[in-house]
Automatic annotation (TrEMBL):
It comes from Pediococcus pentosaceus. One of its GO terms (molecular function) is protein-N(PI)-phosphohistidine-sugar phosphotransferase activity. The keyword Coiled coil does not apply. PROSITE patterns: PTS_EIIC_TYPE_3. InterPro entries: PTS_EIIC, PTS_EIIC_3, PTS_IIC_cello, PTS_Sugar-EIIC/EIIB. It comes from the Bacteria. The chain crosses the membrane at residues 30-50, 70-95, 107-125, 137-159, 180-202, 222-242, 254-273, 285-305, 317-336, 342-361, 391-408. Residues 4-411 form the PTS EIIC type-3 domain. Coiled coil: none annotated. This is Permease IIC component.
Length: 430
Protein backbone atom coordinates (compact mmCIF):
# COMPACT_ATOMS: atom_id res chain seq x y z
CA UNK A 1 0.00 0.00 0.00
CA UNK A 2 2.82 2.38 0.95
CA UNK A 3 4.71 1.54 -2.24
CA UNK A 4 1.63 2.22 -4.35
CA UNK A 5 1.11 5.58 -2.62
CA UNK A 6 4.70 6.56 -3.34
CA UNK A 7 4.23 5.59 -6.97
CA UNK A 8 1.13 7.78 -7.23
CA UNK A 9 3.01 10.69 -5.71
CA UNK A 10 5.87 10.30 -8.17
CA UNK A 11 3.40 10.13 -11.07
CA UNK A 12 1.81 13.36 -9.88
CA UNK A 13 5.25 14.95 -9.72
CA UNK A 14 5.93 13.79 -13.28
CA UNK A 15 2.62 15.28 -14.39
CA UNK A 16 3.48 18.58 -12.76
CA UNK A 17 6.77 18.54 -14.65
CA UNK A 18 4.90 18.23 -17.95
CA UNK A 19 5.80 21.07 -20.30
CA UNK A 20 2.23 22.27 -20.98
CA UNK A 21 1.30 22.03 -17.30
CA UNK A 22 4.27 24.16 -16.29
CA UNK A 23 3.50 26.76 -18.96
CA UNK A 24 -0.05 27.12 -17.62
CA UNK A 25 1.18 27.37 -14.02
CA UNK A 26 3.73 30.06 -14.92
CA UNK A 27 1.05 32.00 -16.75
CA UNK A 28 -1.32 31.78 -13.78
CA UNK A 29 1.42 33.02 -11.46
CA UNK A 30 1.93 36.01 -13.73
CA UNK A 31 -1.80 36.77 -13.74
CA UNK A 32 -2.23 36.59 -9.96
CA UNK A 33 -1.44 40.23 -9.03
CA UNK A 34 -3.89 41.56 -11.63
CA UNK A 35 -6.61 39.09 -10.66
CA UNK A 36 -6.13 40.00 -6.98
CA UNK A 37 -6.32 43.74 -7.66
CA UNK A 38 -9.37 43.22 -9.87
CA UNK A 39 -11.07 41.06 -7.22
CA UNK A 40 -10.50 43.66 -4.48
CA UNK A 41 -11.71 46.43 -6.80
CA UNK A 42 -14.82 44.41 -7.67
CA UNK A 43 -15.37 43.74 -3.97
CA UNK A 44 -15.29 47.47 -3.20
CA UNK A 45 -17.65 48.16 -6.10
CA UNK A 46 -20.28 45.69 -4.97
CA UNK A 47 -20.03 45.97 -1.19
CA UNK A 48 -19.36 49.72 -0.78
CA UNK A 49 -20.31 51.57 -3.96
CA UNK A 50 -23.49 49.77 -4.98
CA UNK A 51 -26.55 51.52 -3.56
CA UNK A 52 -28.49 48.27 -3.26
CA UNK A 53 -25.78 46.28 -1.51
CA UNK A 54 -25.83 45.29 2.15
CA UNK A 55 -23.47 47.84 3.74
CA UNK A 56 -24.88 51.00 2.10
CA UNK A 57 -28.38 49.81 3.02
CA UNK A 58 -27.49 49.14 6.68
CA UNK A 59 -25.41 52.27 7.29
CA UNK A 60 -27.50 54.54 5.09
CA UNK A 61 -24.86 56.14 2.89
CA UNK A 62 -26.62 55.39 -0.42
CA UNK A 63 -27.47 59.06 -0.89
CA UNK A 64 -23.86 60.03 -0.27
CA UNK A 65 -22.72 57.75 -3.08
CA UNK A 66 -24.82 59.56 -5.67
CA UNK A 67 -22.83 62.75 -5.07
CA UNK A 68 -19.48 61.07 -5.57
CA UNK A 69 -20.10 58.86 -8.57
CA UNK A 70 -16.57 59.51 -9.89
CA UNK A 71 -15.29 57.11 -7.19
CA UNK A 72 -17.49 54.36 -8.60
CA UNK A 73 -16.23 55.13 -12.12
CA UNK A 74 -12.60 54.81 -11.00
CA UNK A 75 -13.12 51.36 -9.49
CA UNK A 76 -15.26 50.30 -12.45
CA UNK A 77 -12.38 51.09 -14.80
CA UNK A 78 -9.86 49.38 -12.50
CA UNK A 79 -11.94 46.20 -12.45
CA UNK A 80 -12.48 46.26 -16.21
CA UNK A 81 -8.76 46.73 -16.92
CA UNK A 82 -7.63 43.90 -14.63
CA UNK A 83 -10.17 41.17 -13.87
CA UNK A 84 -12.27 42.18 -16.86
CA UNK A 85 -9.53 41.38 -19.40
CA UNK A 86 -7.85 38.49 -17.60
CA UNK A 87 -8.50 36.08 -20.50
CA UNK A 88 -6.65 38.40 -22.90
CA UNK A 89 -3.82 38.64 -20.36
CA UNK A 90 -3.81 34.82 -20.24
CA UNK A 91 -3.24 34.72 -24.01
CA UNK A 92 -0.44 37.27 -23.55
CA UNK A 93 1.34 35.33 -20.79
CA UNK A 94 0.88 31.89 -22.36
CA UNK A 95 2.27 33.06 -25.71
CA UNK A 96 5.19 34.64 -23.84
CA UNK A 97 6.24 31.51 -21.94
CA UNK A 98 5.61 29.14 -24.86
CA UNK A 99 7.76 31.19 -27.24
CA UNK A 100 10.45 31.54 -24.60
CA UNK A 101 10.45 27.77 -24.10
CA UNK A 102 11.41 27.32 -27.76
CA UNK A 103 13.92 30.22 -27.91
CA UNK A 104 11.66 32.44 -29.97
CA UNK A 105 11.00 36.12 -29.43
CA UNK A 106 8.75 36.04 -26.36
CA UNK A 107 8.03 39.78 -26.39
CA UNK A 108 6.67 39.81 -29.93
CA UNK A 109 4.89 36.50 -29.33
CA UNK A 110 3.10 37.84 -26.23
CA UNK A 111 1.95 40.99 -28.04
CA UNK A 112 0.77 38.86 -30.97
CA UNK A 113 -1.11 36.54 -28.62
CA UNK A 114 -2.85 39.49 -27.00
CA UNK A 115 -3.88 41.05 -30.33
CA UNK A 116 -5.01 37.69 -31.74
CA UNK A 117 -7.24 37.04 -28.75
CA UNK A 118 -8.75 40.53 -28.88
CA UNK A 119 -9.52 39.98 -32.56
CA UNK A 120 -11.38 36.78 -31.67
CA UNK A 121 -13.51 38.65 -29.12
CA UNK A 122 -14.69 41.29 -31.61
CA UNK A 123 -18.42 41.08 -32.22
CA UNK A 124 -20.70 42.88 -34.65
CA UNK A 125 -23.51 44.69 -32.81
CA UNK A 126 -27.08 45.04 -34.02
CA UNK A 127 -26.43 48.60 -35.17
CA UNK A 128 -23.49 47.53 -37.35
CA UNK A 129 -20.71 48.59 -34.97
CA UNK A 130 -17.80 46.56 -33.62
CA UNK A 131 -17.37 45.85 -29.92
CA UNK A 132 -15.41 43.49 -27.71
CA UNK A 133 -17.41 40.59 -26.29
CA UNK A 134 -17.03 41.19 -22.57
CA UNK A 135 -18.06 37.63 -21.71
CA UNK A 136 -14.96 36.35 -23.49
CA UNK A 137 -12.53 38.67 -21.72
CA UNK A 138 -13.17 37.77 -18.06
CA UNK A 139 -12.55 34.65 -15.97
CA UNK A 140 -14.97 32.63 -18.09
CA UNK A 141 -12.62 32.98 -21.08
CA UNK A 142 -9.44 31.77 -19.36
CA UNK A 143 -9.37 28.40 -21.12
CA UNK A 144 -9.72 29.99 -24.53
CA UNK A 145 -7.09 32.57 -23.63
CA UNK A 146 -4.56 29.91 -22.67
CA UNK A 147 -5.39 27.91 -25.80
CA UNK A 148 -4.88 30.90 -28.11
CA UNK A 149 -1.65 31.87 -26.35
CA UNK A 150 -0.26 28.36 -26.60
CA UNK A 151 -1.11 28.08 -30.30
CA UNK A 152 0.52 31.45 -30.94
CA UNK A 153 3.66 30.25 -29.16
CA UNK A 154 3.72 27.07 -31.25
CA UNK A 155 3.26 29.18 -34.39
CA UNK A 156 6.35 31.18 -33.46
CA UNK A 157 8.20 27.90 -32.87
CA UNK A 158 7.55 26.73 -36.45
CA UNK A 159 7.39 30.03 -38.33
CA UNK A 160 9.89 32.34 -36.62
CA UNK A 161 13.67 32.10 -36.33
CA UNK A 162 15.46 31.20 -33.11
CA UNK A 163 16.73 34.08 -31.00
CA UNK A 164 19.34 32.22 -28.98
CA UNK A 165 22.24 33.09 -31.25
CA UNK A 166 21.35 36.71 -31.93
CA UNK A 167 23.84 39.41 -31.01
CA UNK A 168 22.86 42.58 -29.18
CA UNK A 169 23.59 44.89 -32.14
CA UNK A 170 20.51 45.71 -34.19
CA UNK A 171 18.60 43.14 -32.19
CA UNK A 172 15.23 44.92 -32.24
CA UNK A 173 15.02 45.24 -36.03
CA UNK A 174 16.34 41.73 -36.59
CA UNK A 175 13.88 40.23 -34.15
CA UNK A 176 10.99 41.99 -35.83
CA UNK A 177 11.98 40.68 -39.25
CA UNK A 178 12.62 37.17 -37.94
CA UNK A 179 9.12 37.00 -36.45
CA UNK A 180 7.23 38.92 -39.15
CA UNK A 181 5.97 35.83 -40.99
CA UNK A 182 4.64 34.29 -37.79
CA UNK A 183 2.91 37.52 -36.77
CA UNK A 184 1.19 37.97 -40.14
CA UNK A 185 -0.03 34.36 -40.37
CA UNK A 186 -1.34 34.33 -36.78
CA UNK A 187 -3.26 37.59 -37.17
CA UNK A 188 -4.73 36.57 -40.55
CA UNK A 189 -5.94 33.27 -39.05
CA UNK A 190 -7.40 35.14 -36.04
CA UNK A 191 -9.29 37.51 -38.36
CA UNK A 192 -10.69 34.58 -40.35
CA UNK A 193 -11.91 32.83 -37.19
CA UNK A 194 -13.43 36.05 -35.89
CA UNK A 195 -15.35 36.55 -39.15
CA UNK A 196 -16.52 32.93 -39.01
CA UNK A 197 -17.75 33.23 -35.41
CA UNK A 198 -19.63 36.41 -36.23
CA UNK A 199 -21.14 34.85 -39.36
CA UNK A 200 -22.31 31.86 -37.35
CA UNK A 201 -23.51 34.22 -34.61
CA UNK A 202 -22.41 31.85 -31.85
CA UNK A 203 -20.47 32.16 -28.65
CA UNK A 204 -17.73 29.68 -27.86
CA UNK A 205 -18.13 30.12 -24.12
CA UNK A 206 -19.90 27.54 -21.92
CA UNK A 207 -21.42 30.43 -19.94
CA UNK A 208 -24.04 30.53 -22.66
CA UNK A 209 -24.77 26.86 -22.05
CA UNK A 210 -25.39 27.61 -18.38
CA UNK A 211 -27.77 30.44 -19.21
CA UNK A 212 -29.66 28.30 -21.76
CA UNK A 213 -30.31 25.74 -19.03
CA UNK A 214 -32.83 28.19 -17.63
CA UNK A 215 -35.21 26.96 -20.32
CA UNK A 216 -35.35 23.59 -18.57
CA UNK A 217 -38.00 24.85 -16.19
CA UNK A 218 -39.36 21.48 -15.24
CA UNK A 219 -36.00 20.18 -14.09
CA UNK A 220 -34.93 23.23 -12.09
CA UNK A 221 -37.08 22.15 -9.19
CA UNK A 222 -35.42 18.79 -8.54
CA UNK A 223 -32.55 17.91 -6.24
CA UNK A 224 -30.97 15.79 -8.99
CA UNK A 225 -30.85 18.80 -11.31
CA UNK A 226 -29.23 20.90 -8.58
CA UNK A 227 -26.56 18.26 -7.94
CA UNK A 228 -25.85 17.98 -11.68
CA UNK A 229 -25.40 21.75 -11.94
CA UNK A 230 -23.10 21.77 -8.90
CA UNK A 231 -20.87 19.16 -10.56
CA UNK A 232 -21.01 20.94 -13.92
CA UNK A 233 -20.17 24.28 -12.29
CA UNK A 234 -17.17 22.77 -10.52
CA UNK A 235 -15.79 21.14 -13.66
CA UNK A 236 -16.28 24.23 -15.82
CA UNK A 237 -14.77 26.57 -13.24
CA UNK A 238 -11.83 24.22 -12.64
CA UNK A 239 -10.89 24.45 -16.31
CA UNK A 240 -11.49 28.20 -16.58
CA UNK A 241 -14.71 27.91 -18.59
CA UNK A 242 -17.19 29.87 -16.50
CA UNK A 243 -17.50 32.26 -13.62
CA UNK A 244 -19.39 32.41 -10.33
CA UNK A 245 -21.63 35.41 -11.24
CA UNK A 246 -23.19 33.46 -14.12
CA UNK A 247 -24.01 30.53 -11.86
CA UNK A 248 -25.32 32.73 -9.08
CA UNK A 249 -27.54 34.60 -11.55
CA UNK A 250 -28.90 31.27 -12.75
CA UNK A 251 -29.77 30.16 -9.24
CA UNK A 252 -31.38 33.44 -8.19
CA UNK A 253 -33.61 33.74 -11.21
CA UNK A 254 -34.77 30.17 -11.53
CA UNK A 255 -38.39 29.09 -11.63
CA UNK A 256 -38.13 27.38 -8.25
CA UNK A 257 -36.93 30.52 -6.42
CA UNK A 258 -39.80 32.56 -7.85
CA UNK A 259 -42.35 29.94 -6.79
CA UNK A 260 -40.83 29.70 -3.30
CA UNK A 261 -40.90 33.46 -2.83
CA UNK A 262 -44.52 33.71 -3.97
CA UNK A 263 -45.45 30.94 -1.52
CA UNK A 264 -43.72 32.76 1.35
CA UNK A 265 -45.44 36.06 0.56
CA UNK A 266 -48.88 34.45 0.30
CA UNK A 267 -48.63 32.17 3.36
CA UNK A 268 -46.43 34.49 5.48
CA UNK A 269 -43.96 31.69 6.23
CA UNK A 270 -40.89 30.18 4.59
CA UNK A 271 -41.56 26.73 6.02
CA UNK A 272 -43.08 24.26 3.57
CA UNK A 273 -42.14 26.01 0.32
CA UNK A 274 -42.89 23.90 -2.77
CA UNK A 275 -39.31 23.53 -4.00
CA UNK A 276 -36.90 23.34 -1.03
CA UNK A 277 -34.16 21.45 -2.90
CA UNK A 278 -33.61 23.73 -5.87
CA UNK A 279 -30.34 25.24 -7.06
CA UNK A 280 -31.23 28.64 -5.59
CA UNK A 281 -31.92 27.27 -2.12
CA UNK A 282 -28.83 25.08 -1.90
CA UNK A 283 -25.94 26.11 -4.12
CA UNK A 284 -25.00 29.74 -3.55
CA UNK A 285 -25.83 29.76 0.19
CA UNK A 286 -24.38 26.37 1.16
CA UNK A 287 -22.55 24.77 -1.78
CA UNK A 288 -20.39 27.72 -2.75
CA UNK A 289 -19.18 29.19 0.55
CA UNK A 290 -16.36 31.42 -0.60
CA UNK A 291 -17.13 30.84 -4.27
CA UNK A 292 -17.19 27.80 -6.53
CA UNK A 293 -15.50 24.85 -4.86
CA UNK A 294 -16.29 26.25 -1.38
CA UNK A 295 -12.85 27.85 -1.37
CA UNK A 296 -13.26 29.48 2.05
CA UNK A 297 -12.50 26.03 3.45
CA UNK A 298 -9.43 25.83 1.21
CA UNK A 299 -8.11 29.18 2.47
CA UNK A 300 -8.57 28.07 6.10
CA UNK A 301 -6.90 24.72 5.34
CA UNK A 302 -3.93 26.58 3.84
CA UNK A 303 -3.64 28.72 6.99
CA UNK A 304 -3.74 25.65 9.23
CA UNK A 305 -1.79 23.01 7.31
CA UNK A 306 0.36 24.56 4.59
CA UNK A 307 4.09 25.04 5.24
CA UNK A 308 4.63 26.84 1.94
CA UNK A 309 5.27 30.55 2.47
CA UNK A 310 3.92 31.57 -0.94
CA UNK A 311 0.68 29.66 -0.29
CA UNK A 312 0.27 31.38 3.06
CA UNK A 313 0.75 34.81 1.46
CA UNK A 314 -1.73 34.03 -1.32
CA UNK A 315 -4.24 32.86 1.29
CA UNK A 316 -3.88 36.08 3.30
CA UNK A 317 -4.30 38.33 0.27
CA UNK A 318 -7.26 36.31 -1.01
CA UNK A 319 -9.13 35.93 2.29
CA UNK A 320 -11.14 39.15 2.17
CA UNK A 321 -12.49 38.63 -1.38
CA UNK A 322 -13.24 34.97 -0.58
CA UNK A 323 -15.32 36.00 2.44
CA UNK A 324 -17.60 37.76 -0.05
CA UNK A 325 -17.60 34.89 -2.60
CA UNK A 326 -14.97 36.46 -4.89
CA UNK A 327 -12.54 33.56 -5.25
CA UNK A 328 -10.78 34.36 -8.54
CA UNK A 329 -7.55 35.29 -6.73
CA UNK A 330 -7.26 32.02 -4.78
CA UNK A 331 -8.13 29.98 -7.89
CA UNK A 332 -5.34 31.64 -9.87
CA UNK A 333 -2.83 32.08 -7.05
CA UNK A 334 -2.62 28.59 -5.48
CA UNK A 335 -3.31 27.69 -8.33
CA UNK A 336 -6.44 25.57 -8.23
CA UNK A 337 -7.35 25.99 -11.91
CA UNK A 338 -6.11 23.07 -13.95
CA UNK A 339 -4.30 21.61 -10.93
CA UNK A 340 -5.10 17.90 -10.84
CA UNK A 341 -4.16 17.73 -7.17
CA UNK A 342 -7.21 19.78 -6.12
CA UNK A 343 -9.87 18.55 -8.52
CA UNK A 344 -11.23 15.93 -6.07
CA UNK A 345 -11.94 18.29 -3.11
CA UNK A 346 -12.95 21.09 -5.48
CA UNK A 347 -15.81 18.93 -6.77
CA UNK A 348 -16.47 16.94 -3.58
CA UNK A 349 -16.77 19.70 -0.96
CA UNK A 350 -19.69 21.56 -2.65
CA UNK A 351 -21.55 18.25 -3.07
CA UNK A 352 -21.08 17.39 0.61
CA UNK A 353 -22.19 20.89 1.62
CA UNK A 354 -25.32 20.68 -0.55
CA UNK A 355 -26.05 17.22 0.89
CA UNK A 356 -25.77 18.47 4.47
CA UNK A 357 -28.03 21.46 3.77
CA UNK A 358 -30.59 19.31 1.95
CA UNK A 359 -30.61 16.85 4.87
CA UNK A 360 -31.17 19.67 7.38
CA UNK A 361 -34.09 20.95 5.31
CA UNK A 362 -35.55 17.45 4.89
CA UNK A 363 -35.36 16.87 8.67
CA UNK A 364 -37.10 20.23 9.25
CA UNK A 365 -34.13 21.55 11.21
CA UNK A 366 -34.13 24.70 9.12
CA UNK A 367 -36.21 26.25 6.33
CA UNK A 368 -35.03 26.67 2.74
CA UNK A 369 -33.41 29.91 1.60
CA UNK A 370 -36.25 31.91 0.07
CA UNK A 371 -35.55 35.64 0.19
CA UNK A 372 -33.25 37.52 -2.13
CA UNK A 373 -29.96 38.28 -0.42
CA UNK A 374 -28.58 41.82 -0.96
CA UNK A 375 -25.46 42.20 -3.07
CA UNK A 376 -22.23 42.31 -1.13
CA UNK A 377 -23.43 39.99 1.64
CA UNK A 378 -20.62 37.92 3.23
CA UNK A 379 -20.87 34.27 2.27
CA UNK A 380 -21.32 33.12 5.88
CA UNK A 381 -24.40 35.35 6.32
CA UNK A 382 -26.22 34.59 3.07
CA UNK A 383 -28.26 31.67 4.40
CA UNK A 384 -29.07 33.57 7.62
CA UNK A 385 -30.47 36.54 5.69
CA UNK A 386 -32.12 34.36 3.06
CA UNK A 387 -34.12 32.56 5.78
CA UNK A 388 -35.02 35.80 7.58
CA UNK A 389 -32.72 35.12 10.52
CA UNK A 390 -32.97 31.38 11.18
CA UNK A 391 -29.99 30.70 13.47
CA UNK A 392 -29.76 27.00 12.59
CA UNK A 393 -28.42 28.05 9.20
CA UNK A 394 -25.33 29.46 10.92
CA UNK A 395 -24.69 26.10 12.56
CA UNK A 396 -25.07 24.35 9.21
CA UNK A 397 -22.72 26.90 7.60
CA UNK A 398 -20.12 26.32 10.33
CA UNK A 399 -20.47 22.56 9.91
CA UNK A 400 -20.04 22.87 6.15
CA UNK A 401 -16.93 25.02 6.50
CA UNK A 402 -15.42 22.65 9.07
CA UNK A 403 -16.04 19.54 6.98
CA UNK A 404 -14.70 21.38 3.93
CA UNK A 405 -11.47 22.18 5.79
CA UNK A 406 -11.20 18.52 6.81
CA UNK A 407 -11.67 17.39 3.18
CA UNK A 408 -9.16 19.91 1.80
CA UNK A 409 -6.62 19.10 4.55
CA UNK A 410 -5.00 15.95 3.05
CA UNK A 411 -4.62 17.64 -0.32
CA UNK A 412 -2.97 20.72 1.18
CA UNK A 413 -0.58 18.43 3.06
CA UNK A 414 0.05 16.43 -0.11
CA UNK A 415 0.84 19.70 -1.86
CA UNK A 416 3.46 20.37 0.82
CA UNK A 417 5.00 16.96 0.24
CA UNK A 418 4.86 17.20 -3.54
CA UNK A 419 6.56 20.56 -3.40
CA UNK A 420 9.37 19.13 -1.25
CA UNK A 421 9.77 15.89 -3.21
CA UNK A 422 9.40 17.69 -6.52
CA UNK A 423 12.29 19.97 -5.67
CA UNK A 424 14.34 17.00 -4.58
CA UNK A 425 13.53 15.08 -7.74
CA UNK A 426 14.44 18.06 -9.88
CA UNK A 427 17.78 18.38 -8.13
CA UNK A 428 18.48 14.67 -8.53
CA UNK A 429 17.61 14.54 -12.20
CA UNK A 430 19.62 17.63 -13.09
Amino acid sequence: MWVRREQIIRKIIRLQQNELYQLVQKSLNLLFPFVLIGSISQLIQITMLNRNSLLPTIFGFSSWLSRYRFIEIIFDHLTSLTLGIVAALAAFSMAHYTAKRYQRDEKLASITGLIAYLILTVRYTNNGELAFGQDMLGMGGLFLGFLVGYLVGLSFKHLANSQQDKSSSGVTWNRALDSLRAIIIVLVVAICFSILLNWLAISVLPDQVILRLQSLKANQTSLLFSVAIVILAGIMTFFGLTSMPILAHFGRNGVAMTANLNYALIHHTIWGVPYPFSLGTLYESFGAIGGTGSTLSLVIAIFLFSNQRDQQLIGRWSLLPVLFNFNSAILVGVPVLGNGLYIIPFLLVPLVNVGIAASAIALHLMPAVVYQVPLGTPSLLQALIGTNGNWVTLLVMALNVGIGVWLYRPFVKLSNRLNTQGDGLDATER
